[in-house]
Structure formats: structure tokens, C-alpha cells
Amino acid sequence: MARQRWIATAAAVVAIGTGASYVIRALPPDPTPVADFSAPFVFGRFSVPQDNPLTEEAFALGRRLFYDPALSGGNDRSCATCHIQRLAFTDGLPTAAGLNGESLEFSSMSLVNLLWGQERFFWDGRALSLEQQALLPIENPQEMAQDLEELVRELKGSRQYRRMFRQAYGEVSSENIARALATFMRMLISAGSKYDRFLRGEAVLTEQEELGRKLFMAHPDTKVSLRGGNCIDCHSQFLTSGFRDGLDGFSNNGLDKDVDLPAGLMAVTGNPAHKGFFKVPTLRNIAVTAPYMHDGRLQTLEDVMDHYNGGVVVSPTLSPLILEADNAASPPGSFVGLRLTDSEKAAIIAFLHTLTDEAFLSDARFSNPLEGEL
Ligand code: HEC
Ligand code: HEC
To answer: Which residue in 9, 215, 229, 275 has its CB near the most CB atoms, within 10 A?
Structure first.
């Protein structure tokens, strides 16, 4: 019964995503397009679904829903329980905490610049749009354990929500809950880090940060004595997340040997070549999102650098981009990683710190709108 309902809902949401068979039932009065919307051109092209334009009303509604514990079955947790603004919308835990205190399989993900995100969401890429993604944690019995029909009934009982839905979309429905949450998440734009200001010519990097930047961007080549950290090969430049096209934003970065590799993207595509592939996460605000990796196994950025430098585990699906990146030209069979010096590792870490966007982490527009009300 519950499962059937889930499938019906998922189908409806997919229909929104493609815009194909969705009929707008009640035209909203007159939502206001987000006025001062600007996005750094260096971030590249982005698209907003035609049937879910960025409007002030949808943003305000999505923001409220994001922070409202009413979205969970027990009225005791919201999206923000696991996505905390000052932690770049992660939760500081190795893996997220389930409703009964159990540790879930995956680490909470940073929510930033999703407008340019890959075409797939979650560590294993199983959601194909933010609209599709948004209802999954609500219904997940270990996360928010809420029945969608029950939630719609609850929200319809609130005058304020009825008004906010009417202004943004028309009616209170699970589709419109998903669309509002997706709008809020699309507006979580970070473009104010020291690195952004450097790109705009407004800030100067220290010598160490500059060395780190160069290493981050370079694929090592011992033949021409080019030293590199190779990070850019996957954590692509301005967004420092994976590439957006198809499955290019997923890879195996050498955390486990073959027998221990979790399915990752293979769980979604069924393709054994995708075993152990995970979404290349953004490195924006990475200094505030410890612990690291899909299961939070690494505590610090130093641990992360030690992994790429000397702890890479070779397996059949290890990314060739990592396997080819060795600053010491190790003989075949002895590859362990980048083999950078301690000061080069420290320089990359210093560069990673320039990706912290304080303005984003404390932007009042993204904070809890219910705080004043409660
Ligand atoms: C119990 C903690 C928890 C709650 C509550 C929660 N999330 Fe998450 N969120 C996670 C975890 C863990 C992941 C990674 C899950 C995975 O990969 O399977 C994640 C991933 C995501 C992603 C994917 C980001 C990306 O880059 O692919 C989005 C978007 C997201 N959550 C939004 C939300 C929204 C919206 C809500 C509220 C409706 C919410 N989350 C509630 C823990 C939570
Ligand atoms: C072959 C592609 C690839 C390369 C090259 C690469 N990474 Fe990654 N990186 C990934 C993937 C995939 C993950 C997620 C892996 C997982 O959790 O299973 C990741 C995760 C991370 C994380 C943890 C992020 C988080 O939110 O937990 C950090 C930090 C990181 N990489 C930094 C770097 C740095 C610094 C470099 C260069 C020295 C680098 N990466 C090179 C693919 C790559």
C-alpha cells in the first residue's frame, strides 16, 4: 500500500521533471520572479525547469518547509537537522543519524550551487532532479518517516501554508512541496569565497595558497618536471564538483579494495564498471564539512591528502586519472598515490581553505525563518 503510493508519487514527480504530462491545476495569482538573481558567468550554463521558475514566493515557501519539523512523521526533525547552514548544509557526523539513533549508510551532503550540479543527486546518483530528490528523505522511514498524504493534510490545516502555497503555486500538494524545496536549494549559491574574489581580481592569494592552487590544477608529468595534485581532473574548476554531463561526475577515488567496494553508482546503473563510483562532491566550504567521504571515514583534510598522496587502493574500477597521477614515477605495481612533499600537501590544504565562503555560511536569506516565530 505505502509502496504503491510511493511509486505513484515518484511518477508524478518525474512527470514534473520532464514537463511532459503535467497539468497546472490552479494558476497561481502572480508569483514574482526572483529579482536580483545573478550567477557568476564562470560557473557556466544552468537550467531551471520550465514549470518551476525561480520566484520569491516559491523560495520563501521552500525555505520554510526546509526548516519545518512538521515535514517529519514525529514533527521532530526537518531537512535542516541533517543540513546545517553553518556547516555548509552538512551535519558534522560521519554518517547521518537515523530516527532511532542508528547510523545511516551515508554522510549528509553539502547543499551548494546545485543549480550547476550534476544531472544526478545523492552519493550514488539515484535521484535525477531536485524535485524528484526532495520527497525521498521525507518518506524515508529512517530519515523523516512522513506519509505524504498526511503531510499534505497537515499543511492544508495551516492558514499560513495555504496562503504561501496559493501565492507560489496554487494548491497544497506533494508535487508543490517538492518544487518549493527544489527552488530553495537552487538558490543556495555560493560565490563569495576568497578564491572567487581572487578570480574576480579582488583578492590576492598568499604564496602558499597560490602554490596549492597550481598543484590543485595540474596533472603531474615527471617527463617535464611538472608537479601536480591532479584534483581538477575530477573536482572541476569553478564549482570544484564533478562535471555535469552524464556519469562523468562519478568515480572511484581509491578508498577500498575490490572485495570491500560498495556498489555506489552500480546500484543505480547495474553496470559493474561503475562499482565503487561515487559522486565527485563539491570542495566549496570543504574546511567546514568534516568528516569526509561518503561514509565519513576521514577526519581531517590532512587525512584526505594522506589518502591521495600515499593511501590510494588499486582496484579494477579505480579512476585512471588517479592511477596516472604520480609525482615520483613509481615502477609498475608500486603505485600508492601522488607522492607530494609535506609542504606541497600543506599548500593544497591552504588552497582548500580559500574555498570557504563565510557570507554564504551566514547569509540570513538561507537561515531558519521559523526561529523568530517559535
Ligand atoms: C537524516 C538526515 C537527513 C535529513 C533529515 C535530510 N537529509 Fe538530505 N541528505 C542526507 C544524506 C545522508 C544524504 C546523502 C544520501 C545518499 O547519498 O544516499 C543527503 C543528500 C541530499 C541531497 C543530495 C545532494 C547532492 O549533491 O547530490 C539533497 C539535495 C538533500 N539531501 C536535500 C534534503 C532535503 C530537501 C531534505 C528535507 C526534505 C533532506 N535532505 C533531509 C541526510 C539527510
Ligand atoms: C578520479 C577523480 C578524483 C580526483 C583526481 C580527486 N578526487 Fe577528491 N573525490 C573524488 C570522489 C569520487 C570523492 C567521493 C568519494 C567517496 O566518498 O567515496 C572525492 C572526495 C573528496 C573529498 C571529500 C569530500 C566530502 O564532501 O566528503 C575531498 C576533500 C577531496 N576529494 C579532495 C580532493 C583533492 C584535494 C584532490 C587532489 C589532491 C582530489 N580530491 C582528487 C574524486 C576525485
So the answer is: 229
Q: Establish whether residue 293 lines the binding site of ligand 1, counting it when its CB lies within 6 angstroms of any ligand atom.
A: no
Query: pLDDT truncated to tens, each residue of the chain (374 aa)?
Result: 333 333 333 333 333 444 444 444 555 568 888 877 777 777 877 888 999 999 999 999 999 999 999 999 999 999 999 999 999 999 999 999 999 889 999 999 999 998 886 678 999 999 999 999 999 999 999 999 999 999 999 999 999 999 999 999 999 999 999 999 999 999 999 999 999 999 999 999 999 999 999 999 999 999 999 999 999 988 885 665 656 556 678 999 999 999 999 999 999 999 999 999 999 999 999 999 999 999 999 999 999 999 999 999 999 999 999 999 999 988 888 999 999 999 999 999 999 999 999 999 999 999 999 987 65
Please give the single-letter amino acid code of residue 121: F
Q: What is the Å distance from ligand 1's center to 178 Cα?
A: 13
335 vs 322: CA distance, rounded Å:
10
Q: Are 51 and 60 in contact (CB under 8 A)?
A: no
251 close to 234: Cβ distance less than 8 angstroms: yes
